[in-house]
Design a protein that fits this description.
Blueprint (H helix, E strand, L loop, with lengths): L2 E5 L2 E4 L4 E8 L7 E7 L6 E6 L6 E3 L7 E6 L4 E6 L8 E8 L15 E2 L3 E6 L1
Parallel strand pairs: 2-11
Antiparallel strand pairs: 1-3, 3-8, 4-5, 4-9, 5-6, 7-8, 9-10, 9-11
Length: 126
């Protein structure tokens, strides 16, 4: 079965950096765009970043543009999210997701994503 396993979350001071990883198995990784979403307590799950199946195109939420970078290594079936200049507002559970979209533009709507990981907590102290 399909599994997406996130790692790399943790506690970091404001201004610090983290790199999240998401290892995929049970699917043909290059047949999927990949996305990162986050959910803070009491809030909806919001789009953060997405990348096409081949890594050629990316999209970001305005709130993270210039600070976060999504990338993927298709040889390792892994997608990454490098987060710099972290703020307390970035604190949330971060989820990776897979969308069976091989188009040139990755989706930003969580309802388009087929598979989800269990999430990893990111805590930012001020």
């Amino acid at each position: 079965q399909v599994q997406l396993v996130e790692s790399g979350g943790g506690l970091v001071q404001a201004g610090g950096s983290l790199r999240l990883s998401c290892a995929a198995s049970g699917l043909t990784f290059t047949g999927y765009a990949m996305g990162w979403f986050r959910q803070a307590p009491g809030k909806e799950r919001d789009f953060i970043a997405a990348i096409t199946w081949n890594g050629a195109n990316t999209r970001y939420a305005d709130s993270v543009k210039g600070r976060f970078t999504i990338s993927r290594d298709n040889a390792k079936n892994t997608v990454y999210l490098k987060m710099n200049s972290l703020k307390p507002d970035d604190m949330a559970v971060y989820y990776c997701a897979a969308d069976n979209n091989i188009g040139v533009v990755p989706g930003t709507n969580r309802h388009d994503y087929n598979y989800w990981g269990q999430g990893t907590q990111v805590t930012v102290s001020s």
